[in-house]
Structures are given as structure tokens and as C-alpha cells.
Amino acid sequence: MKQPCKNNKKQLVIGGLLSLLLGVMIVTGTVQSSRLLPVLPNKPLVFPKDYGAHPDFRIEWWYITGWLDTEDEKKLGFQVTFFRYQTELNIDNPSQFAAKNLIIAHLALSDPTQGRLIQSEKIAREAFDLAYSKQGNTNVKLDDWFLVRDDNGIYKVDMRTDDLGLQLSLQATQKMMLQGDQGFSRKGPKPEQASYYYSEPHLNVTGTVFRKQRSVKVNGVAWLDHEWSTAYLDTDGDGWDWTGLNLDDGSTLMMFQIRGKKGDRIWAYAALRDASGNMKFFQPDEIEFTPIRTWKSPHTEAIYPVEMRIRTGNIEWQLIPLMDDQELDSQQSTGAVYWEGAVTLMRDDKTVGRGYLELTGYAKSLTL
Question: Domains in the chain, please, with CATH?
């Protein structure tokens, strides 16, 4: 499933970078560098600049999930993620061989006819115009994979391997959703445990899905998250449950909880925006994730709560997976194994929306 390098330039995508990344994450996970900027409140996000990369922060990702309808009326889920990781190594070294930033990319397709997640991943140092994350607007590239936002605000995705590929165009239908306090999103009890975070829900998607020698036209609805941070996860954090949901009536729901290693909950957040753009935020005691059904991975033996009852205030919802086996194994890049799946949102036994559910820390504690 992981694609081998096929020419000399692609040798940037090497297994040694995995060891480097994991080592740096362990060393810098609890150390605040004077070179890196903290996430601070009351700092307005500025666009289009903040669509682009933020190299003065440790970690950043552009994350797109969505549901697709094929020409033959089949349902698919897809995930596209580009990460930028600031290693803090060789900062003053002018050589392009110096691994100052790593670019990591994940591509995944949930296809019930296959019975399990289909995925691919790459990792490379940012260098030689073969891997980069540009400032000023979304423009991220890793080898021949890219995510770019044009001057008209349309995102283009092109990520292909011999067995799997996506070529998509995504266009906003609503204004962006600034998470937390105008984009300042708390992730824990300490002030520095935060990210700058905005979402673009209800993106209209058109394009093509490639599977081996076959291509099929698709359309659908997607969700984009862009986050950047320097200190993200509390050292007592075990992982998180997150969901982003596009409701059929034009509403949007995003909620997450960060679980502690002792079985407690460190932080929780939820925001519901109606089709008119009115936002409602919920207090932690108004937010619940309650497992209804679990699934044990035959690949890692991790047990995931793939079917959930969630609560925001006095509203109860239910998340039903498109299929159970949506475990994403990214041990060759970020070192993490987690469940990332397309889900249907139910309320009062009726389908009211679709989105994605992310479950981290169930295979092993997540380190950021």
C-alpha cells in the first residue's frame, strides 16, 4: 500500500525521516522553543494570508474529509491530509538537504465494496521544490501530490498512486467557521495548549476517483480543517474523539473531547452553526461522547467505539459508520494508528447529516 520511490528525486521520501520525526516529537513534545511562536488569544486571523503555511509554529495540518457519490450511486468516504512539522534542527543551515520542515501526506478512501480502508502515505523533507508548504495561500506539495487554493477560492487536490487516487475540485458554499474564540481553539487547561483553527464546512466537491485501472466521476460534500500550533496536547492526554458534520439543512456541527490517560476527560468543545450562520457554543458539561458499539481491529487489535451517541446540550445524536474497518495505519509517517471514518448523523431515528469521526489514542497513546 505504501508506494516505493521510483526515481532519484523521490528519494526524499525515505524511511529514515520517520525515525527523525519520531525522535524530534519525543524531544520537543514538552519543550517550548524560543524559536517557535506560541498560540495566543485575541490575535485575529487574517485572510488570505492564514490560508497558507505558518513556519514559525511547530505543527500544522490541512485536513479534508467528505462523502462522495459515484456515477453508479455508490457511497464513498475520503480523507486527504497534509502535515507540516517544524523539526527545529539545522535552522541556520542554508543547505536544502537540512531537514528543517517535514511534509507528510495521507490519502484514504472508505469503500464498503472493499470492506476496509484503502490508504497511502508519503513523507519528505521540505526541499528542492519537491516538497513544500507555501505562505500566503494554501499551497502544499509532496512529490506529485498537492493541495492548492486558487485566487477564486477553489481548492484543487491531486493525489494518485498505482492503486488509488483522487483528483478533486472543492468550492465553498458557506463562510468559514472560526473555531473557539475567533479562531483561538483551546485544547487543554494550560493557556499554551491551543491552536489557531478554522473550518470550511459544506464544500461542494466534483472530480474523479481512481482505483487501479478504473476511474469514476464523483460529486459530494466535504469539510476542511486548517490548524497550526506549537504546544498542542497535554502530557496527560491519551488521545481524542473528534467529529465534523455537515447537516442536510445547511447546519454544521463540530465537537471533540480530549481523553486523559487515567480515563478522565481533559477538555471538551462543541459548536453548532445553523444555516443562517448563527453559532452556539456548548459548555463541557453539555458535551458527551457515549460509545454504543465497539469494533476490534483485526490488524492491530485496538478496540474503537465506532458507533457513538453524542450530546450537545439537550440534543442527542447518533453516529453510524459507513463501515467498521476504517482504521488508518500511518506508522510509516507520523507513527500513529487511529480510526478515521465516514459516519452518518442520526437524530430521532432519521438521517440528518454526514461527516467524519476521528478516534485517536486507542491503539496507543497519541504523542504530539
Answer: 40-359 (2.40.370.10)
SS (H, E, C) the chain: CCCCCCCHHHHHCCCHHHHHHHHHHHHHCCCCCCCCCCCCCCCCCCCCHHHCCCCCCCEEEEEEEEEEEECCCCEEEEEEEEEEEECCCCCCCCCCCCCCEEEEEEEEEECCCCCCCEEEEEEEECECCCEEECCCCCEEEECCEEEEECCCCEEEEEEECCCEEEEEEEECCCCCEECCECCEEECCCCCCCEEEEEEEEEEEEEEEEEECCEEEEEEEEEEEEEEEECCCCCCCEEEEEEEEEEECCCCEEEEEEEEECCCCEEEEEEEEECCCCCEEEECHHHEEEEEEEEEECCCCCCEEEEEEEEEECCEEEEEEECCCCCEEEECCCCCEEEEEEEEEEEECCEEEEEEEEEECCCCCCCCC
- C-beta of residue 137 within 8 angstroms of C-beta of residue 72: no
Instruction: Decide if 49 contacts 147 (C-beta within 8 A).
Output: no
Look at 12-26, 30-44, 190-204 and tell me which has the smallest mean pLDDT.
Answer: 12-26
Exposure of 6 by Cβ count < 10 A (0-12 exposed, 13-18 middle, 19+ buried)? Answer: exposed
Residue 367: pLDDT over 80: no
Please say whether the dihedral angle defined by the alpha carbons of residues 233, 237, 238 and 243, taken in this order, is positive or negative: negative
Percent of the chain at pLDDT > 70 equals 85
What the block records as the C-alpha cell of 271 is: 459548536
User: Who's near 312: CB < 8 A, 6+ residues apart?
Assistant: 253, 255, 270, 272, 282, 286, 287
